[in-house]
Please model this.
Amino acid sequence: MSGAGIDEDDAIQRIRALVAQSRPAAVAGWPEYWARLTGLPLAETLDALEALVARGELRRQALAGRTMYIADPPHTAMAPR
Model:
C-alpha cells in the first residue's frame, strides 16, 4: 500500500461494508469509482480490490480495455460461494 496511512485490512473492511450496504444489488465499477465510494486513495483502493479478488469476494471484468471490479449479488450464479 502507499504511504497514506490506510491499512489494507481497513481498506478491505470499507469495501466490504459498501458491498453489504448495497445488497441485494451488485456493485461494479472502475477502481476510481470504488475509491470515490469508499473515500480511499486510488492506490489503496486498488490494492484492496485485488486482495478481495484473490480471496474470491470480488471478480474482475475486462471492459473497454480496462478492468472493472464487481461484487455480484448473492442470488446470482456469479457470486462467490
Summary: Residues 8-22 form the longest helix (15 residues). The longest strand covers residues 66-71. Helices lie at 8-22, 31-38, 42-54.
